[in-house]
Amino acid sequence: MQIVIQSNGLELTDSLRAYVKRRLQFALGWALTRRLVVWLSDINGPRGGRDKRCKIQVSLANGRKSVLIEDTEEDLYAAIDRAAARADHAVARQLARRRRFSHEKLPPADSGGEPQH
């Protein structure tokens, strides 16, 4: 799984980068993801407030739709944790939905008899 991390308005330290990677591996390591892109930003800058944003785009394998999750919190680590948990749930729903639709398209099981002509 490739993880790309970008930041805007805050310093992307080695420890922050490691935290994001570890958290996403834990949350989404089970999924068949090709690529994760994470954007971290400080919306209000030095004014403070609930302004730390974590946005995660999950590109799934096998041409499936991407999942995009965004969360804003006062604490950047809380925003990362919450966005990772929400991404985990969204990916699970997306894969379950895809599995359910593919099962509905299958032809009825053969009754074991001779083919009808």
From TrEMBL:
The keyword Ribosomal protein applies. It comes from the Bacteria. Keywords: Ribonucleoprotein, Ribosomal protein. InterPro entries: RHF-like, RHF/RaiA. One of its GO terms (cellular component) is ribosome. Residues 98-117 are annotated as: Disordered. This is 30S ribosomal protein S30.
